[in-house]
Amino acid sequence: NRPQPEPAKPSSRWRSPQSIILIAVVAVALLVIGLTGAELYARHKAGSVLVAVTECVVEDNASVSFGVKPPFLWQHITGYYTNISVETGGKQVQAAKGMTADVALSDIRLQGTADSKGTIGSLGATLTWTSAGIKDTVAENLPGVGALVTDVSTDPSAGTITLQAVGDTRVTAKPVVNNGNLDLQVTDVSGPFAKDTVQTALNGLTTKLNDAYPLGIHADSVAVTDTGVVGKFSSQNASIPNDDSGDACFAQL
């Protein structure tokens, strides 16, 4: 009898060192691709939510960016965000026309309690208010009188702004920080209106603006520039309103 050929042995090419390395590389690549996709999706979803909350609060367009350490996916899973930056479009911040907000938040913990949805360890905001925006804000919020204002100019050296109205009416005021509020202190008035009357009207305007800021935000400093007014605001260990607060903006969070 003729000897029978031995059965062919299974190929061992998948057990070679090169094949094992290739399989490991492919597995790692797939893992990286999966984590990258999850990271991008989490950033997009969280960013969309925070943009909606911000735009609701400021009543203007906004953009949001997140810190990169640790990876955002981990921040999203744990509910602890290291840093978030927010910038608004410059159309307005609530009733303040022509204002832009540049906000930095850190140590954000979305760990709800009976009283809040979480806390913001630190919040710092730079609010830039243009001269044209001040004019439009006064016109809209001081019926009758505000419509008479034709121009707003600044004097950085004196730290004052001047509202020019029809005729020879001029109001000069100094932006100041008073117990955490940004106020306009009238220093001079020319024209038919008494200084106390003008001061009362401006107090009503600034009270409306100050009272509308959320999260315990308060003014720290203010400066007059060539183009308007820049204020520094902050808040520490702020509680994020929960759904029971009736805050429609933060209800989206």
What does this structure look like?
The protein is 30% helix and 38% strand. The longest helix has 42 residues, at 17-58. The protein has helices at residues 17-58, 72-78, 131-141, 195-211; strands at residues 62-66, 80-88, 92-93, 96-97, 99-109, 116-130, 149-155, 160-165, 170-178, 181-190, 218-224, 228-241. The strands form 3 sheets. The protein has a 6-stranded antiparallel sheet. The chain has a 4-stranded antiparallel sheet with strand order 7-8-9-10. The radius of gyration is 29 Å and the shape is elongated. It is an alpha+beta fold. The chain folds into 2 domains: 15-80; 90-246, no CATH class. It contains 4 helices and 12 strands.
Radius of gyration: 29 Å
| Count of the domains | 2
Span between termini = 84 Å
The helix fraction, in percent, is 25-40%
What's the number of extended β-strand segments? 12
Uncertain regions: pLDDT < 50 for 5+ in a row? none
Q: If you average the pLDDT, what whole number results?
A: 86
Strand order of the largest sheet: 1-2-5-6-12-11
Taken as a percent bin, the fraction of beta residues is 35-45%
State the secondary-structure class: alpha+beta
